[in-house]
């Protein structure tokens, strides 16, 4: 799994193109202030390990660390299949995201997901300071 986490003062999206037929219909975007946006690519190797909960827990632990480093309590999970050539199935990826969101919310972290299965128009304002951008290979 690859993760690029960016602290943003503003992150907004608007659905542009649906790219997964089975994705639910989404017509509205959203905007968030002072949050970490996690661009996440779940890879085939993650799925091959047959350890959904283990992979999700590793992601959540990393995101909690990034949030602490940025003194932040809000994270947006964004599927971003451009960090590696390897991709897990859409079903497995969505399961990782849903379990991670549940665990983060149980830890009192405000959490949201961008629409899964869409290309999005993005509006990002990200300050340039140490640890505002963190890449990880989990």
Structure, explained:
The structure is a single chain. With 138 residues, the chain is an alpha/beta fold. It contains 3 helices and 6 strands. The chain has one domain: D-tyrosyl-tRNA(Tyr) deacylase (D-tyrosyl-trna(Tyr) Deacylase, Chain: A, 3-Layer(bba) Sandwich), CATH 3.50.80. Strands 1, 2, 3, 4, 5 and 6 form a 6-stranded mixed beta sheet that branches. β3, α3 and β4 form a beta-alpha-beta unit. α2 crosses α3. The longest helix has 18 residues.
Which key terms come to mind for this protein?
single chain; 138 residues; 6-stranded mixed sheet; alpha/beta; 6 strands; D-tyrosyl-trna(Tyr) Deacylase, Chain: A; globular
Brief overview, please?
The protein has 138 residues and is an alpha/beta fold.
Query: How many structural domains in the coordinates?
Result: 1
Low confidence ranges:
none
Fraction of helical residues: 25-40%
Q: How many strand segments?
A: 6
Task: Output the CATH class name.
Answer: Alpha Beta
CATH architecture: 3-Layer(bba) Sandwich
Structural class: alpha/beta
Secondary structure elements and their pairing?
Elements: E1 2-18, E2 30-41, H1 44-48, H2 52-69, E3 74-79, H3 90-106, E4 110-113, E5 118-125, E6 133-137
Parallel strand pairs: 2-3, 3-4
Antiparallel strand pairs: 1-2, 1-5, 1-6
Helix pairs in contact: 2-3
């Amino acid at each position: 799994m690859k993760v690029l986490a960016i602290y943003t003062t503003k992150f907004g999206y608007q659905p542009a193109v649906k790219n997964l037929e089975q994705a639910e219909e989404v017509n509205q975007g959203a905007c968030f202030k002072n949050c970490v946006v996690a661009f996440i690519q779940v890879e085939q190797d993650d799925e091959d390990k047959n350890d959904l909960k283990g992979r999700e827990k590793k992601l959540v632990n990393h995101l909690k660390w990034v949030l602490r480093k940025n003194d932040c309590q809000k994270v947006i999970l964004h599927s971003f299949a451009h960090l590696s050539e390897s991709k897990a199935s859409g079903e497995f990826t969505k399961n990782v995201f849903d379990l991670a969101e549940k665990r983060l919310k149980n830890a009192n972290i405000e959490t949201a997901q961008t629409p899964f299965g869409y290309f999005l128009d993005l509006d990002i304002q990200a300050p340039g300071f140490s640890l505002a951008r963190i890449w990880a290979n989990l």
